[in-house]
Amino acid sequence: HGPQTAMVVGEGEIDCDAFGRILVRFHWDLSGAHSMRCRVSQNWAGAGWGGMVIPRIGMEVVVEFLEGDPDKPLVTGNVFNGRNGVPYELPKHKTRSTFRTKTHDGKGTGRGFNELRFEDQAGAEEIFMHAQKDMSVEVLNNRAKRVGRDQAEEVGNDKSIQVMGDHDELVAGNMSIAVGNNPLSEMVRQKTRVLFDGVATAMKRMKIPDPFNFGKGNFQLFVEKNRSEIVNGASSEIVGIARSVAVGHTHQTTVGNAMSVIVRKRYDSDVGSVHNIRVGDQFTIKVGENSTLTMSKEGDIVLTGKRIRFKADKIDYN
């Protein structure tokens, strides 16, 4: 007499055998008995591959009988009813297509879900993915991603990236990296929050309260071999407390025009062997307001002070 609907029954939340067959109870069966195990039609069914969605207890399914034989029941679909409502309000979300699951906790109280959703409303098109816990993506060859406008990423805890070959990054505009809680990190945090809010508004999703968790505020960089840095404009560095540089072999600094070093209190220089200073035009040492030593390239040496004393075991005059 054509397809019939029945309710999925069994033990627990999901009840199937090794072949994915389920038990159903027909509405006309007033005795409360259930059927024999029914095969479930899937979108694909290959040898170890294909689709696999097992109807759960409490769902209403469509049952047909192969060749009209009541001993060959086949579940061919599912239908919503008054007890099992649709995932999204209709007809309000009639442009939305979704595949949403429900967390299985063995008690029937699971509230979590995994979902793949498509929104086709003009001007609000969206593909939405939700993983209730973990999400894994494995690509055996190449992967390419292109974002036409903005991209925002939030990591609630730690993040690690391992690149076995080369890693290149090209930033056409500005780039900011902030570590720890400081004015710069707050600026980046605010800019990122604005970006998140803009994406959330466009995608009709809730706002993210705090984009970053900066942890203890330390930053470490380790380079196995060589490192080069080229800045076409200006470069500045601000260190709040202390800065140290350890060079294992040679250290060279080349300045094309002017260079100044300002030390507010004490400046020490310790050279283990030879220290050479070469000045092209004039060399001046000034201490306070009364003592000055000036040497010029013409050979003039001027020593100025209130009192000049010489101490030595021997002084030679040529």
UniProtKB/TrEMBL annotation:
A matching Pfam family: Phage_base_V
Domain of life: Bacteria
InterPro entries for the chain: Gp5/Vgr_OB, Gp5_Vgr_C, T6SS_RhsGE_Vgr_subset, T6SS_Vgr_RhsGE, T6SS_VgrG/RHS, Vgr_OB-fold_dom_sf
Residues in Gp5/Type VI secretion system Vgr protein OB-fold domain copies: 15-80
Domain Gp5/Type VI secretion system Vgr C-terminal trimerisation: 97-186
Protein family according to the UniProt entry: Belongs to the VgrG protein family.
PANTHER family (alphabetical): PTHR32305, TYPE VI SECRETION SYSTEM SPIKE PROTEIN VGRG3
Protein name (record): Rhs element Vgr protein
Organism: Paracoccus aminovorans
